[in-house]
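agent: user wants the full assembly modeled, not chains individually. Plan: 1) parse entity lines 2) check alphabet per entity 3) run joint structure prediction 4) return tokens. Steps 1-2 passed, two entities, 727 residues total. Proceeding.
--- entities ---
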Amino acid sequence: MSFETTGSGPGMAVLNFCRPAVQPIVAVLIATIVGGLLVLALGENPIEVYGLLISGSLVGVPNLLVTLQMMTPLLFTGLAVAISFRAGLWNIGAEGQMLVGALFAGVVGYAFPMPWFLHLPLAILAGFVGGGLWSAIPALLRVYLGVNELVVCLMLNPIALLLTGFFATHVFKAPGPTNKLPDIAPSAALPTFSVYSQVNAGIFIALACCIIFAIINVRTVRGFEWKIMGLSPRFAYYGGINVPRRAIWVMILSGGIAGLAGAEQVLGQYGAFYDNFSPGYGFDGIAVAMLANFNPIGVIVAAFLFGALNGGSGVLQMMTGLSKYLVQVLQFITVLVLAAQFSWDWLILRLFPEPPPKSPDAVEPVNATPTEA
Amino acid sequence: MSGNFLKTGLVVLSLLTTVVVPAFAAPKVAMITSESGLGDKSFNDMMVEGMERAKTELGADYVVIQPRAISEFQSALARAAGQGFDIIIGSSFDMIEPMKAVAAAFPDQKFGLVDVGPEPLGPNVVSTVTKDWEGSFLVGYIAAKTTKTGTIGFVGGKDIPIIHRFFIGYYYGAMMANPDIKVIETYTGSFTDPAGGKEFTLSNINQGADINFAVAGPTSVGVIEAAKSTGTFAIGVDSNQNYLAPGSVLTSMVKRVDTQAFDMIKSVSDNTFAGNQVKMYGLAEDGVSAAMDDNNKGLISDAVLAEVDTLKAKLLSGEIVVPNYFELKAGQAEMGTPPIATPPSIATATTLAQ
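--- prediction returned ---
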């Protein structure tokens, strides 16, 4: 964190407990203020606009359902990124892993009809496998050849887009003008609940994943090992942790969860794999994970916030002349503020190699620095 | 008694005029874009032109809702439904299923969808089909009149019936302009492969085709690039693509989704909206055109443009009927009115995919 506190007492305990939330809240507040100025410059009333964003995302069942729909893919991708970042692995390839997972789920969903109690789990599993395989590439390159996983992940994103696009355009293409796979069988569909929204049973899987990883992180040895790896891979190594092995599996898990985002899209929201379907859920996932301080429960909160922004956006566009880009700008400013915090921490560490002694609980995963290549 | 009756009648009438007429005089419209959104220099931007026209001519109020993904179409439609919009208009083939579902859930809300298939979408939905074969006819005529080599080309995306429909119109127009013209028919096999589009076009150009009509979605960009690099001409498709390479795009076969959207708004404005309808938009309805703007100024001679106008008049009077591929039969020797010999791809075929 950017500030140090010393001392003790009940007041400090409360402060320490709240501390992880301070940074994201400040970031969101700054984004809100800058966004408000932007709205003002566009000749609209910021209070009215934010009011519409809030009512358009939270008030009324239809709006709430749309928010949940927008939130679901971000839960998966946000969690995927959070898991890997927390372990010091810079998996920014969630977008590509999601696309490959979606393709796998789409193929299993349409090509192998079987009873639903087999078909649906298998199609979801296929999504996990697809994403996991795609993230295994940077993981193996990182561990065995020392190639920076950040760069490989980044490069694999467009490759995944074009590769899945190739399958949707040439190999498995459904007849018709759209580049998509044939529709999935009803037996592989995640049920939806309302005409207002494509929110589907996938959101329960997403929430369950977040909760499971929250428990793993806090209550298991493996979760502790991931945290140590993130804080210092060398320390983890000398502490007897099989870092390369753990790193590979963290990346595969992370990619698999990103792949689940694809499975949710295909099996729940689209009903088929569509070429280039994602407006960037994988990248939004990075923002969600950063806002969440890489905490799986925080991912739920951050994904809800971004889901609400995008859900409210539809109503905002309907009621005012404002463009969809406004909420994207809000998101980007939030990330920018968070990223500025990141580089600030990095700078402090470089300028003052011996930081002042910290209280043990001030060590937060946010201080994780990239593993050295 | 009759005086009272008259008074009541007047009161009712004035109520009607104050309540009903303003409600329809300034229609409120929601336009839902496809996932590519505004600034696509294609259908979405053209639809907004239709909205602007409705604003000036009908006093319409419109909002534009831009979903980020196909998965957001349904929620965008459903949340706009029942919000007091007189009509909600969409512009994507991928919106057919979402619109069907939402229209069934909101039977009192009127919907419109431009440039889709021939099947009606619901009792409260009006949709349109663009007679692209008539537009292709027009640019085929222009190409045959403008070529210097006597050979023109056609670069389709996939070798499928919907693209054959463009080719037949193009071929018919070219033959009408010059019965000795040679028309090279090629298909790249993909709608999303500009590099392939360029290769196939270069091959056409090597065979002497100095004008190539691109009917290939994003592949068309490659066709235009090939024209630019060889100093020949391309013809754009769907939207006005003249701007992509000014001076190298002879014209574009434009589907006038702006007209189609405007007519939908007009129908709610003058209370003639009737659902379950699929309206056909050809030359007569101003539903297709050959785009003329600053980017292709002077590329087509005034004499040819004058001929195009007479051609249009003949088409409107029924003197010319451009053949629709879907009404042709395999082995058919002649097609259209006036009859012109069918291209080999039909004359020698044993079956036609429909």
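agent: reporting back. Chain B touches chain A at residues 30, 35, 37-38, 63-72, 74-76, 78-80, 83, 93-94, 101-102, 105, 162, 190-192 (CB under 8 Å). Chain B has two domains: 2-130+257-281, 132-254+289-347.
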